[in-house]
Write a structure and sequence with these properties.
608 residues; alpha/beta; ABC transporter transmembrane region fold; Rossmann fold; six-stranded mixed beta sheet; four-stranded antiparallel beta sheet; 65% helix; 10% strand; elongated
Amino acid sequence: MNNKARKSLSKSFRKTLSIFLYGFKALGLVWDTSKVLTIAIAILTIFCGLLPGAIAYIGKLIVDSVILASQNGTIAQRNLALNYVALEAIAFVALAACQKGLGVCQSLLRVLLAYGVNVLILEKALTLDLAHFEDSEFYDKMTQARSQASSRPLSLISRIFGLGQSALTLLTFSGLLLSFSTWAVIVLVLAAIPSFIAETRFSEHSFRLFKWRSPETRQSHYIETLLAREDYAKEVQLYQLGSMLLQRYRDIFDRLYVEDRNLTIQKGFWGYLLGLLSTGAFYATYAWIVMEAIAGKISLGEMTMYLVVFRQGQTTFSAALTSIGGMYEDNLYLANLYEFLDEPIPQSQGSIIKGTVADGIRFENVSFCYPESQQPVLHNISLHLRYGEKLAIVGENGSGKTTLIKLLTRLYTPTSGRILLDGVDLNDWDVETLRHRIGVIFQNFVQYQFIVGENVGIGDVEQMNDSQKWITATEKGMAKPFIDNMPLGFQTQLGKWFKGGQELSGGQWQKIALSRAFMRSQADILVLDEPTAAMDAEAEMNIFNHFHTLTKDQMVVLISHRFSTVRMAEQIVVMGDGKIIEQGSHEQLLKANGRYAHLFSLQAAGYK
């Protein structure tokens, strides 16, 4: 054997072993999902494996007894033949019942298992950092895990049980065939191997296609969303994007379809070609058995049994090898699932639940680069926010304002430097404690398709259904007047996804989001990222006059482009290119006549 052949054989052997790699994990998953259904499937599989052999043997007894009865004509012989027919009918009924029961159990287990695996994936997603969700490669991995892996564990277990069933059937068939010839058993085995090789090869190719084109599949789903969602419809129509997006959708489909078509045609062609070998082996054996019957070496009943056993045995063995090929493909998908589930969980590290001094928030020479990037987004940021102070951050888009907020809320960790809260490094705080202390409104806050009360209540999930807190929070967020005018008040469904939903204006949604922040009555840090961008100037002024009074004992970090709002802060930070370029009060910055003064004069001129 040359080196190339040895390597090929070694690779094939490793592939064969790899099919059992995730078998135990999948079995554990199925067992944990439903022990009763797993045991039922195992028992029914055993009966489904043994009954075909019994039916074939009873068929032989029927033929022989019929021939004997036709020769003798005795009542006893006729009754014996009829008894064998009744016995075969019972065996067929039992087999049908086992097969139907097996199908029912697998269907029930499939639903439970799909739910269980999706819960595992979602639970894993909850443990991950924001960086994982902003990483396109990781997002592809999660998409792949969710797309098919929920059904693959049961598929693998079904194939393993099916393999066991086939093994039992083949053992009984082999026992019957051995009485005819050992060579018949050898031919039965060898004839099915070519189909197995083709199946394994195309299973691997199919999975590679699935994994490689995950980004295109996501892009296709995204275009579907753009074309079919109400929140995108108005812009798609007004900008006349429909034809362009639909053409992109078609282009992606055409590209993916070509790959699928080529794979399907190759698989069908080679499957047919290699299947001819199995067909040739069957008819060669068929002729051999017929010649033995003509020669009087076997009875007509035995001939019938051997033909049935060989045909069914060939089909069973081929199905068993196909199952092995399918198990190999299932393992490839499960490898992707467990690769996602085994992703290292970011260590929260912190356990401190109380600060050492009432010092507020300090940034000390904080710099930050996003993962997979060498370009710093923030450079040596240093600032101090005391209790009761209001800090406003201004700057052009891309200057690092929102990134600063992500660091403060510990969605990201500084690349260098440190952030202190009450004298304790932010990384040393217990995450749950830290998050309870912070109320946040991001510029792109989520508009939940929930009722009004729940939209507000999620600001404090532990008090989410406290209707009294809804009232208090919406009074502070100045949302209560328009909520009172809604058909069902706090019970009004928002959004258009569900029946009876009502849409809000941008300004009303922002008041809902502001109320959401006030749900955290224990929070002593409020972070507002463009919280009134969709409101008119008068509404914004009313809110911030009201807001300033309500938050006199809290630290507030405000990002805004409107200087009428910014000037209310005791401390203003001007950012540019990830650095603090100016810092001080409104009056101090105007006197400095720098960047802030220039931006303020430009905006003020627009109101003259």
